[in-house]
Structure formats: structure tokens, C-alpha cells
Amino acid sequence: MEIFQIVGQELVSSGVSFNSNLLEANVLNILLLLSGLIYVLRKFLGSVLDDRQNKVLFAIRESEERLKQANVRLNEAEKQLAQTQIIINEIINEAEITARKVRESILEQGKLDIDKLTQSSKASVKFAENTVKLQIQQQITALALQKVEKQLKSQINAVMQNKIIDQSIVQLEGKINL
Q: pTM here?
């Protein structure tokens, strides 16, 4: 253990010393200075801190208000997006329905056109058949008349011709008299 000696009011040890005289050590002066600084600075720092606190609170309130407004705008934008999506879906559905109706109309018109062409073709074929039949009948009739005429020329002599002429005159006289 070390031995401490009290010299005046100082406690002395071999190397480290403690001055117990407060006036001499300026501890009292330092305490007074610190308390004065705290008193003066508390008002100054208090007003600065109050201003800073008010500014921070104002900034927080302003940020919260902007957050609320942003959330309101976000909700409105989401509603508009949902409404726009509904409208887009309606437009797509209407476009599909319209495309289906147009396709069905085109197919129906195509069927009608095919039916008209078929009927027109059938009518043309029927007309051509009738025309060919009429031409064939006329040719057959002409050939038959030619054949009959040939036969008559070969079979009719002058006596028969006179007899036919007389009968025709008699028939004409009967018609005139009536």
C-alpha cells in the first residue's frame, strides 16, 4: 500500500495528486460557468429546438397530407384503370360479336349468291335445253317434211294432183258459203 500524506489540503500520492481546494481548483468556477451556459443556452437552444421541432412536425403533417392525397389519387387511378379495363373488355366483346355477325352475314350472303348462281345456271341450262330441243324438233320437222315431200313427189301423179286440187277447192267453197 502506498502511503498518502496530507500536505495543506492536498492529498498527495506518489504520482497522482488531487487538489481538494475548490477555489483553487476552479471547479466552482467551472460549475458556475456550466450552469450559466445551460441557463442561457437552454432558452436559446430551446427556442431553436422548438422551431426545429415545429418545422419537422409541419413537414411530417405536410408529408402525411401529401401521402393522403397521393393515396386518394392512387385509388382514383385504380378505379379509372378498373373502369377502363371494363370498357376495354366490353369493346373486345362487342368487336368479337360484330366480327361473328359480319362473318355470318358474309357466309349467308355467299350462300345466297351461290343459290342465285345455281338457279341462274339451272335456268340457263334449261333454256339451252329448250332451245336445243326446239332446234332438233324444227330439224326433225323439216326433215320429215322433206321426206314426205319426196315421197309425195314420187307417188303422186297428175291424176292424184288434180283430185287433191278439186277437193281443196270444194272445201274452200264450203267455207266461203258459210
A: 0.42
